[in-house]
Amino acid sequence: MEPRTPWRPVGKGGCRPSPAYFYMIDNLLECRRESGFPSNGEFFDEDVNVYLASLLTSHVFGTSGAAATGTIMHYDIPLFETASGETDPRRRFIIYRANADDLLVRLGVFDNPEGRRPGSAPHMAMNRKAWIGRGKAYYSLAWASAAETFRRPTAIGNVMSKLSTGFERYVGILSAMRSSCLNMIPRISDG
Predict the structure, then answer these.
(1) Burial of 110 (0-12, 13-18, 19+ CB in 10 A)
(2) Closest by alpha carbon to 124, among 70, 75, 71, 80?
(3) CA-to-CA distance for 21 and 53, rounded, in angstroms?
(4) Fewer CB atoms near the end CB (10 Å): N or C, the chain?
(5) Alpha carbon 145 to its chain's center
């Protein structure tokens, strides 16, 4: 399957199939409205909607470049050592953005920031607030690397800045999408 796999909205007769990306953007906008964070509420963030829909589509179809490049690291020290060892700011940008995106999806969609199987022993006792702080920091570092790379304000740099500033909001929106659109319901506990 590829990102252009068609979908047809239910109940809208005579509607032509659309690419799967439109499913993501349509449901993302609906969840934003339902969760109390409509687009352009505090600041213009329609560009973030496009970015998030693209990110979700790439995860659905396994075309996320981050996992393929091997840049996802679950600990801060190896991440910062790898990024600081890079002389090319573009490569640093890719590393920080990939890790921030991965953390955003793990927190928002899967509610599993550690990326571990349920029931496995926890290896880092970090609370949700610490994970959110980590995501904000990664997007902020990606923004700084983008500014260093392009030496002027860019669209991707603006998106990284907005994701850093409103990280909690976007995690909340993706959490709303998890149950209402993606039909991912948490497992019932053994008790």
Answers:
(1) middle
(2) 75
(3) 7
(4) C
(5) 18
CA 40 to chain centroid, in Å, comes to: 18
- Token output for 3: 């990102």
| Token pair for 169 | 């909001």
Quick one: tokens of 163? 């994701």
CA distance 184 to 116: 17
C-alpha span between 60 and 47 (Å, rounded)? 20
- Give pTM, 2 decimals: 0.78
pLDDT digits (tens, 9 = 90+) for 71-96: 788 778 888 888 888 888 888 899 99
Question: Quick one: tokens of 113?
Answer: 């920031």
Residue for token digits 């920091």? 137
Question: How does residue 1 score in pLDDT terms, banded at 50, 70 and 90?
Answer: very low
